[in-house]
Amino acid sequence: MKTLKNVIPIVLLISCFVFSSNNLAAANDPTDKEISNAVDNELFFNATTPSYLIDVQTNEGIVTLNGSVNNILAKDRAVKIARTVKGVRAVVDNIEVDAPYRSNAVLENDVDNALLSDPATDSYEIYVVADMGQITLTGTVESWQEKQLSEYVAKGVSGVKGVENNITINYTANRPDYEIQQDIEQSM
C-alpha cells in the first residue's frame, strides 16, 4: 500500500509532463493560415518569383499553388520556396506556364544556341526537339550534374513550357585521379 502511494504521484507527475509537452508541440505547429502567409511572404521577397501571380492555399499542411507564370524557372522556384517553409508537409503544383508562343523550329534553334553559348554546356552532345512549347532533350553526357544543367539551361529559354529530359549518362570509366581533382576544383 505504501508503494502504491509513492507510485501514484510519480505517475501523475509524468502524465502532466507528457500532456504539457504534447500541447507545446501542437502550439508550435503553425496553422494553415500561418503557413499560407509564410509561403506568400517568401514568394514576395524572392525576386525570381512573381508572387502576385501565384495563389497559395493550405489544408492540413499541404500547400497548393495556383496561377500562371511566364517561364518554367519561376514555376520551379516557387515550388522549391514553398517546400522550405516550416509546417509544409507537401506541395501541390498547379502553376501553369503561360510562355509566349514560338514556333517549334525557333524554340529548337534557341535552345541549341543557349546550350552552345553556356560555357558549361557548350561541349555536350545534346539534341533538342520542340513540340508546342514542350522540349525533349536527348543525347549523352558524362555526369548527373551535366544532365541537370542542360535541363536548367533549356528551361531558361523564352517560350519553353516544359522539358522532358531524356539525356543518358555515360560515366567515363577509369578516370585518373588528377582529372577528378580538376573537376572538383573547377566546381568550387
Itemize the secondary structure elements and their pairings.
Elements: H1 2-28, H2 32-44, E1 54-59, E2 62-69, H3 72-83, E3 90-97, H4 104-117, E4 125-131, E5 134-141, H5 144-155, E6 162-165, E7 168-169, H6 177-187
Parallel strand pairs: 2-3, 5-6, 5-7
Antiparallel strand pairs: 1-2, 4-5
How would you describe what is shown here?
The chain has 188 residues and is α/β, with parallel strands linked by helices. Helices cover 47% and strands 23% of the residues. It contains six helices and seven strands. Strands 4, 5, 6 and 7 form a four-stranded mixed beta sheet that branches. α5 links the parallel β5 (134-141) and β6 (162-165).
